[in-house]
Amino acid sequence: xxxxxxxxxxxxxxxxxxxxxxxxxxxxxxxxxxxxxxxxxxxxxxxxxxxxxxxxxxxxxxxxxxxxxxxxxxxxxxxxxxxxxxxxxxxxxxxxxxxxxxxxxxxxxxxxxxxxxxxxxxxxxxxxxxxxxxxxxxxxxxxxxxxxxxxxxxxxxxxxxxxxxxxxxxxxxxxxxxxxxxxxxxxxxxxxxxxxxxxxxxxxxxxxxxxxxxxxxxxxxxxxxxxxxxxxxxxxxxxxxxxxxxxxxxxxxxxxxxxxxxxxxxxxxxxxxxxxxxxxxxxxxxxxxxxxxxxxxxxxxxxxxxxxxxxxxxxxxxxxxxxxxxxxxxxxxxxxxxxxxxxxxxxxxxxxxxxxxxxxxxxxxxxxxxxxxxxxxxxxxxxxxxxxxxxxxxxxxxxxxxxxxxxxxxxxxxx
Length: 415
Ligand SMILES: Nc1nc2c(c(=O)[nH]1)N[C@H]1C(S)=C(S)[C@@H](COP(=O)(O)OP(=O)(O)OC[C@H]3O[C@@H](n4cnc5c(N)ncnc54)[C@H](O)[C@@H]3O)O[C@H]1N2
Ligand code: MOO
Known about the structure:
Blueprint: H1 16-24, E1 33-36, E2 44-45, E3 49-50, E4 60-61, E5 65-68, H2 70-73, E6 82-90, E7 105-108, E8 120-123, E9 139-142, E10 152-153, E11 164-166, H3 174-182, E12 187-191, E13 195-201, E14 205-206, E15 217-218, H4 221-231, E16 235-242, H5 246-254, E17 260-264, H6 274-278, E18 283-286, E19 289-290, E20 294-300, E21 303-308, H7 312-331, E22 339-343, E23 348-349, E24 355-363, E25 366-369, E26 388-392, E27 398-399, E28 404-409
Helix pairs in contact: 1-7, 4-7
The structure holds ligand LQZAQKY5 and molybdate ion.
Ligand LQZAQKY5 binds near residues 202, 204, 219, 220 and 221.
């Protein structure tokens, strides 16, 4: 292949914040769609939700037992139980047809509507009726005088109709969906899941497990990015491996209907920089960081594209620093990366002219580099150990044990 002369690499590196601004400027306001609640797990709410039903929606029993009128059982004790005829049986889901008459009790199950006129429930254990699956007795002995409202869950005591339930911009997990369903919602206004196209570039790439030709390497960035995209709450709907052929790259991207394309490789100073050459409308520059120095971003047609460097650790770092916040914004979420402050658990070197993102794991609450070779960007096999990226600011050339650092959490929390 003929070497192609591409635009020269800018010599002065740009700041991380500048590239971040460029990347974040690519996120359009995400759409709003109405979806059945059962299909909203993991999506982000687009509008605040208020209660259409009270919780509980009707006054009901908190226990299996007997619904009573207080005045009938005021004198009940274990030694002198009060005996009442049982006028009805109320399973959950079946309101009593009649009010509770004075001088009677009704057997009632947990969650069943309280009969009109009853003001407390005596648990079955405080009666002479055996708990379990039996038919209701003709008469029950009550051993205890209940407090007013004992074992009764009042309509609306959790939440009233019109009360706020969930804010917009919330990731809908099981508890959120439970609350939304309970207050009467079957359809939710959500942001659609961003559809991502992933491209690994390079003529040296082979499929996983394939026999390697001389100079070839397995494509690890493709699966790495697919996994990171899924972790970030988006879905890879298109994926390709493209050789060093700029026209082919362009053809692949322009044929996709996705919300974001993420490429890896082909953007630095080499002679065969397929992304730099194939997508000249992107902005390419070096960012003052290590790993992940070379970066590109822009729009091809109407599709946002971010171009990450090819080294796998650079992909990992660039994804967490730039792609993840962009995907968060596409999902309708606030985009701040999750940072914690932690002490360094070892000594290491850092390039003074750049911000270093050191891949670390937690050891007794301190951040320790996962590999003895530090932040070198080809150390793909140690990525499974990485729990965070310790941020060593520019101007610092050495980290000592105990130094306080920001750590971008990439897996779980501090341990
Ligand atoms: N003269 C210069 N050379 C390089 C510079 C520079 O500033 N001047 N920057 C270096 C840095 S830093 C990085 S990072 C890389 C970025 O290069 P590219 O984005 O163009 O990536 P490639 O050259 O295509 O690949 C780099 C490296 O990663 C391997 N790779 C690529 N794709 C995959 C994949 N899908 N799976 C696994 N490994 C992959 C590739 O074989 C290379 O070893 O440039 C430096 N060079
Ligand atoms: O910036 Mo490169 O990502 O150091 O290896």
